[in-house]
Structure to design on (434 residues):
């Protein structure tokens, strides 16, 4: 199939002049293969948007489902049957969510959901590699797996245990802080990130960045801005990200 | 296509507007529950089906060019009905299926047309999901980062790639691979 991706993006991002746009829309009507390719392109984009947001949507739907259907359960004389496994292609997704959707997580998600879009836009955590230092340490393997799978509850516990034996592993300390941040334990996150920010390790600037993110999540915008300004220019990508976020906060 | 005033619910799904999302539950959960309970289902079935229907709408809402051209209530309820009929078909006797099948269709032409769009999108999303799962971790991560709207340089740093040209080449290769598996 001919590659139209650039053309499609130009259309979707309104980068075409009026004449090109009209020609594009006329071709959609006349050329079914072109229209089909455009539809697939849009569906691929939609899929990726959905993938990035599903962690936010699903707990909300679970909570609304409980509120609007389980209340009704109590009023019916027939005892409810077990909720059956929801279908088909979403089985995997729902299973994961069912595990994650304890009430605590739901309430946390509800309080955070959509309220801090900026935080969500920037809170992407790189995978950690703890086993390059501790190859045969089962705690390191376990903590790494939980963290990289974004299971921050279990990762927090495993990292705490791992750090008892390896208290100087800064990557693990940082990851433990990220768990606190993600779990909404924000004071604890500040306590963990501050020594990294004040220290002299290679992760110093990352510590500063995460302090900024923590204060952003606390809605203490002024302090978040102060920390963002402290991310040094030589940090390259992190500096650019900090400046970009700073721009949005001003 | 003429935009219906209920298109605001599609915008709400796109933006994650909790209040309007809850309004959909407030307004239509009881109708769906009653219908499913009258057709061999229970409350848990109704809850699951309703959630699946919201996700089906959300699939299409993520397409920024999608425009809702009919009342959302009729559409949402019809999506729920069709999903429940599909489940009944899998486990029930022929007579029961025949009785319920007539509920699959709506006389509202615009609603029928929107229903078709949403059901087609659901099939596409399901195929895309399966194909996406077959991509390498690197491809999955890279494509998701692009979808976040980050600048190429920011993605390059996150992906630890040497330069932006490598990133572009990799992105194109990943997209092509995804299409090939999808069309496979």
């Amino acid at each position: 199939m001919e590659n139209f991706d650039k053309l499609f993006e130009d259309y979707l991002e309104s980068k075409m002049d009026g004449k090109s746009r009209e020609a594009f829309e006329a071709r959609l009507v006349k050329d079914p293969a072109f229209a089909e390719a455009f539809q697939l392109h849009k569906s691929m984009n939609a899929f990726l948007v959905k993938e990035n947001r599903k962690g936010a949507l699903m707990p909300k739907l679970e909570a609304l489902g409980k509120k609007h259907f389980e209340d009704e359960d109590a009023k019916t004389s027939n005892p409810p049957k077990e909720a059956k496994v929801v279908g088909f292609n979403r089985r995997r997704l729902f299973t994961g969510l069912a595990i994650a959707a304890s009430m605590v997580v739901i309430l946390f998600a509800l309080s955070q959901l959509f309220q801090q879009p900026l935080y969500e836009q920037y809170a992407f955590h790189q995978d950690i590699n703890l086993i390059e230092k501790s190859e045969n340490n089962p705690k390191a393997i376990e903590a790494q797996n939980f963290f990289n799978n974004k299971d921050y509850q279990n990762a927090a516990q495993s990292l705490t245990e791992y750090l008892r034996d390896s208290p100087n592993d800064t990557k693990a300390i940082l990851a433990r802080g990220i768990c606190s941040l993600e779990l909404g334990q924000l004071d604890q996150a500040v306590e963990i990130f501050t020594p990294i920010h004040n220290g002299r390790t290679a992760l110093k600037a990352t510590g500063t960045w995460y302090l900024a993110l923590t204060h952003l999540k606390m809605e203490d915008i002024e302090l978040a801005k102060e920390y963002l300004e402290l991310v040094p220019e030589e940090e390259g990508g992190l500096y650019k990200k900090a400046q970009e976020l700073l721009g949005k906060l001003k | 296509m003429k935009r219906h005033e209920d298109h605001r619910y599609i915008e709400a799904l796109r933006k994650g507007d909790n209040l309007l999302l809850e309004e959909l539950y407030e307004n239509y959960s009881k109708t769906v529950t009653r219908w499913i309970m009258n057709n061999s289902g229970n409350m848990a079935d109704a809850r699951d089906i309703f959630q699946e229907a919201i996700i089906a709408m959300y699939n299409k809402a993520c397409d920024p060019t999608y425009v809702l051209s009919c009342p959302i209530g009729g559409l949402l309820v019809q999506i729920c009905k069709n999903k429940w009929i599909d489940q009944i078909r899998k486990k029930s006797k022929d007579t029961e299926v025949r009785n319920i099948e007539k509920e699959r269709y709506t006389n509202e032409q615009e609603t029928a047309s929107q229903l078709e769009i949403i059901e087609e999108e659901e099939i596409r999303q399901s195929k895309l999901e399966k194909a996406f799962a077959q991509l390498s971790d690197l491809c999955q991560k890279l494509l998701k980062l692009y979808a976040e709207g980050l600048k190429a340089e920011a993605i390059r740093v996150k992906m630890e790639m040497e330069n932006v040209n490598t990133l572009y080449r990799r992105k194109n290769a990943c997209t092509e691979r995804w299409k090939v598996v999808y069309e496979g």
Notes: Residues 139 and 165 of chain A are 10 Å apart (CA to CA). The mean pLDDT of chain A is 80. Chain A touches chain B through 55 residues (CB under 8 Å). DSSP finds 13 helices and no strands in chain A.
